[in-house]
Specification:
Elements (H helix, E strand, L loop, with lengths): L21 E5 L2 E8 L7 E4 L11 H8 L4 E4 L15 H14 L5 E6 L1 H12 L4 E7 L12 H15 L4 H4 L5 H13 L13 H16 L12 E6 L8 H9 L3 E6 L6 H4 L1 H13 L1
Parallel strand pairs: 3-4, 3-5, 5-6, 6-7, 7-8
Antiparallel strand pairs: 1-2, 2-4
Helix pairs in contact: 1-10, 2-3
Protein name: Pimeloyl-ACP methyl ester carboxylesterase
Length: 289
């Protein structure tokens, strides 16, 4: 286990950029995670996007949410510092997440899934409903949702553009090309560099492609009966999401009975990063309700 110096923010909890890297072993596989905020029995577990490692969680969102509750951020199997081979299906990722949550000793959790993490969170809510108290789905969509299986054809030209302009592709993939979008992209990417020590490992090309396979399969899967998700659900996205088209967020809100929807204007896939302060306030209110 890696423990480093911790600096405390006003809420006197360790900041996410200084949080220790920890591992929990489940059936022979070590899963990497970070654990911040007051040590309550009902944590908020975060599930991240395609190709993301622990250092891709937005520190402002993490610290904002951790000021009032325990936050557990995880690496999927085969991603970052987690052992094993990355699963090529969303259901395998969900089974892993359920096993990790139970191995950590939690009987019930709140879940926040962003993008691919939102697919995984839906799968957990459907397959282990007793485990989830409240659900937050951001920048995501349902199985078989509009355009989800087209993510590669949308992504690769913008990844190439990032290479040619020497910019992180998330500049183009997560944010709009407006003045607000460009500023938000720059601020977000700077926040992701704040952690100096004990950074997570980047995903391997193989893991990246296996996750892409899982996303494609989710996009082509028959629709699920989302009326079975009876728990309170908060759904958030930007109004110009090109990766998981925004119409999917509206679709989720229409199909999950006890849900509420936030759509941020002039924002893309990373709408919650662009509007992090507002999102933290609304998510906290939702979780406390």
């Amino acid at each position: 286990m890696n423990i480093q110096d911790t600096k405390l923010h006003p809420g006197s909890h360790t900041q996410f950029v200084n949080a220790a890297n920890k591992w929990i072993t489940v059936e022979g596989t070590a899963f990497a995670y970070r654990d911040i905020g007051p040590k309550g029995e009902l944590p908020l577990v975060l599930l991240n996007h395609w190709g993301a490692v622990l250092d891709n969680f937005d520190p402002r969102i993490m610290d904002g949410l951790a000021s009032t509750r325990r936050i557990i951020a995880t690496d999927y199997r085969g991603i970052g510092a987690s052992d094993g081979t990355a699963p090529a299906t969303v259901s395998e990722m969900a089974n892993d997440a359920i096993a990790v949550i139970r191995a950590l000793g939690f009987k019930k959790v709140d879940l926040l899934g962003f993008s691919l993490g939102g697919f995984v969170a839906q799968e957990i809510a459907l397959s282990a409903p007793d485990l989830v108290r409240r659900l937050i789905l951001t920048g995501t969509g349902p199985a078989g949702g509009t355009g989800i299986d087209k993510v590669w054809s949308v992504s690769w030209p913008l990844m190439l553009k990032g290479l040619l302009t020497l910019r992180d592709p998330k500049t183009y993939l997560f944010f709009t090309s407006t003045v607000n979008g460009r500023r938000a992209a720059k601020d977000f990417l700077n926040r992701l560099k704040e952690r100096r020590k004990d950074r997570d490992k980047n995903p391997t090309p193989t893991a990246f492609l296996r996750q892409l396979k899982a996303i494609h399969a989710w996009g082509r899967q028959p629709p699920q009966n989302l009326s079975r998700i009876q728990i309170p659900t908060l759904i958030a996205n930007g109004d110009h999401d090109i990766m998981v088209p925004t119409v999917n967020s509206t679709e989720l809100a229409n199909r999950i009975p006890n849900s509420q929807l936030i759509i941020y204007e002039d924002a893309g896939h990373g709408g919650i990063f662009q509007h992090h302060a507002d999102f933290v306030a609304k998510a906290t209110m939702f979780l406390d309700a």
